[in-house]
Amino acid sequence: IYLFLAAMNGISHDFYDAVRRTSDVLQIKGEVLPVTLAEMVLIATLKNGNSISGESAIPQAALAQASPISRIQIEPAEIRPLPETIEAIRNADLITLGPGSLYTSVLPDLLVPEILAAIKESSAPCMYICNVMTQPGETLGYTVSDHLKALVDHVGKGVIDYVLVNNGVPKKDVLKRYEKVQAHPVEIDRKKIQRMGIILIEADLLGVEKGAVHDTDTLCNEIIRISGLLKTNIAPEVLSGYLGRAK
């Protein structure tokens, strides 16, 4: 998909046009909108103090230097988002973040000032979808609350209302393959999440294959279920029981 998108970008008016053409060719349902059409560079500061530039270089450097990521930023810091993306956020019933690489995929979009402001100003709840497995070079050893803390440290408190986590168990042979690269299922540390004031929603999101990533249909159905419940007039204390229950 990345190579196809790159090829389309070479023959399109701009990146947004390339995304639209790609969506048409691949018959993607819904609308795919880029955060910005401007060029930006992702820069990470590791815990050893070194700075690394470039999305793909960051996790590689963190692994090579055995130093976790401490902070992520974009340059230029003030970058204009696509107006259509801001409008989509404003009209959303539910804003979802992830799944995806925490530092090099999820967080960069939130570092665009107008994107974060639009999320904060929106009346729609915001839900973070936590990865099934930890990611070497980015979230090695992270629990769910560690993922949330990284987000809060970068964007502030009160942005994320819910966190959706997988409580299904991947097949043993799948886990063994991931163990070879030091990747493990993300631990659900429920008490710490509760202390953060973020509502935990648990579900088996692996589908029948029980792999190490979210099953697309299962995840989509769960998001639709959650979105539907959030639109009801059920009292918050009762609603939280429906949302947060383990399946």
The major β-sheet equals: 4 strands, parallel
Secondary structure class reads alpha/beta
State mean pLDDT (0 to 100 scale).
Answer: 90
Contiguous uncertain segments of 5+ residues: none
- Strand content range: 5-15%
- SSE order, one letter for each helix or strand: HHEEHEHEHHEHEHHEHH
**What is the overall silhouette?**
globular
Euclidean distance between termini CA atoms: 33 Å
Number of strands: 7
Rg calculated over all Cα atoms: 18 Å
Write structural notes for this entry.
- The mean pLDDT is 90.
- A four-stranded parallel β-sheet has the order 4-5-6-7. Strands 2-1-3 form a three-stranded antiparallel β-sheet, covered by helices on one side.
- The protein has eleven helices and seven strands.
- The longest helix is centred in the C-terminal third of the chain and has 15 residues, at 216-230.
- It is of the alpha/beta class and 247 residues long.
Keywords:
single chain, four-stranded parallel beta sheet, three-stranded antiparallel beta sheet, 11 helices, 7 strands, globular
